[in-house]
Amino acid sequence: MLGNTVEPTFAQLNGAVFTSCSITPNGARTVSGNFNEAVVVLDGADNVTLDGLNAAGNSLTISNPNTGTLAGSIRASNGATNNAFKNLLCNGVGVGNTQGGRTINIGQSTPGTGGNNNNLIENCTVNGGRRGIQNFGTATAAGYTNDNTTIRGCKIKNTSALGIFIGSEVKDNLVEGCEVFNDAPTTTDANYRAIAIQGVGISTVRGCKVYNQNSTVTSTFIGIISIPILLTAPGSNASTVNIFNNMVSITDNNVGAGFIYGIAPLSNTSTVPYIANVYNNSILISGTDLAAVASFTVGMAVDNNLVGSATNVFNNISLNTRFGGDANTQHIGSLLTPYPGCPVNADYNIWTATDTARGFDGGWNNTIYNGIDAYRDSASNPVVNELHTVFSTTFSYVSVTDLHLVPASLGGSINGTSLAAITTDIDGNTRSATLPYRGADELAAGLFKTLTLNVGLEGAMPGGPSEIVTVGLAGNASPHNLIALATETVNGGTLQGRYYFGGAIANGTSYYLIAINRNHLETWSATPITFTAGNASYNFTTALSQAFGSNQVTYSGVATLFGGDVNGDGTIDASDGADVDNDAFNFVSGNQRLTDVTNDQTTDASDAAITDNNAFNFIGVVTPPSPNGISGKGLMSETNSRTTKVTRNLKQVGTSF
Predict the structure, then answer these.
(1) Are residues 274 and 347 in the same domain?
(2) Domain span at residue 437?
(3) Looking at the structure, do residues 440 and 462 belong to the same domain, yes or no?
(4) Helical H runs in 210-253?
(5) Is 346 helix (H, G, I), strand (E, B) or coil?
(6) How many domains does the chain have?
(7) H or E element: which one contains 616?
(8) pLDDT of 231-284, one tens digit each?
(9) Four-residue CA torsion sign, 474, 480, 483, 488
């Protein structure tokens, strides 16, 4: 292209008139039009490359400010295949509501043509339009799917309804390394979705960033949503959605927003059964809305309920710091909802909410919790889940729009589990094969500090199965502030577990070590520990005196933590005994039950005997002297644990377009 043009109507490339075609600018060029159609139309054209180059002074801008719903910069339809749109600036209208069209559109086809397959949209900037980039096939039995579309490295901003839309009647799409954000005042629809997946086959969203999501009018927001819709065009509906290594930040006040979700694998009446793999994402929900009425904000929202579906949720971080609202407002770190025949498999996540009145760290099966032990009790029945997941704020993001981790902020349980599908992070850095980080950001190898701990649990181990024990590191000096938490499995035979801590823990600094289990008493080390060259160890089991104040009990020949603090308030008393007796009377069984002190998957007389004996002896937490710090209930006991039902059904927002 040698000059700028203003098109009176769309410029069309037809199929079957050339084998291939390459269009590039010579200098900074603009093609514009103002009509209710795309400026550039590929009507069945194949093997077209439209490349703005963006180098050596060359660039290509395609603009269409028309408010019509068919307006846009580029449309490919009627069997347009093997085309590439690269390094372009595409401008649409950003006035919102029902105005504006699809700025880049892999569109529908007419009978007798075909699907639009194997198309690439790469390194394009899309500014404005109702839908920034859309891929939508052709419905009905005579229709066509659009297959194998790749959207890579694009920046989509100031759109009014959808940033990237992988619509219905499409298969096998990849969205990779894209950013969806606003950098100008934008009027959105009542419901805005940054990245929406409705296609079937294998759909992957990885390495993307969503941030600065806001509107000049009241709106709801979802960062990434998947709801694969049943094909009416011919083709298989077998579907997997992969959501890997993304950063989703929705932090503006957005006053009046009825709901805000970070990442949401959902379903509705038109959805096909599908597998959702949600791995290593970082989420931040924030903002203040003091007058919110029944607002519902969730970082990770899972509700995939068609029989044959399954959702796998591992190594994610979701922090919800949103504040304000009435008694029916809830701000939640995560809400995972399994159904019969539609399991949720989850572990090694971090879920956190900070509003002390309306915030709940995590939810399972429509009940939300601030206490991790009660949450694990719910999540682990009938199938064990979330054993290594924590409710924690011992991490910080770089900023509200940059969700990379601050190394010096990291406490414990930032290590995830190795996943075959995840070998790099959002920046392409190689992940550790043994100790990968949770979230989208992999820090340099070797930053973890390792604590080797030996600990026993009265009535449970030695001799029983392995158990979850949480470790805290507290300051050596009064008021002994809690600095980091880590949760790991302790082997029931060796009584040993290995814990990993990040940059908040320093070599050469002394820390008191605190051990606690879901129904065993918070117990402090007799003396502080110190990490040397990234390693430390402690053994509670060799003598009762290894606990501060010798506050342990001998079981099976070793020193163990006292059993029976079922309600986690730092004291074993009649209230704990009542909980155990009630569950024993009702023959309660299952995994991670709070009243199962012996960890044999049944609450019975053996659990009651341990609890009653320790209650009779007035057993409670013993801590170092701290007149202005630790309460008599300890530092890690769940005295402020709250549980309630959710106020909204997640499926109510799983709307397809």
Answers:
(1) yes
(2) 190-445+642-657
(3) no
(4) none
(5) strand
(6) 3
(7) helix 605-616
(8) 998 889 999 999 999 999 999 999 999 999 999 999 998 999 999 999 999 999
(9) positive
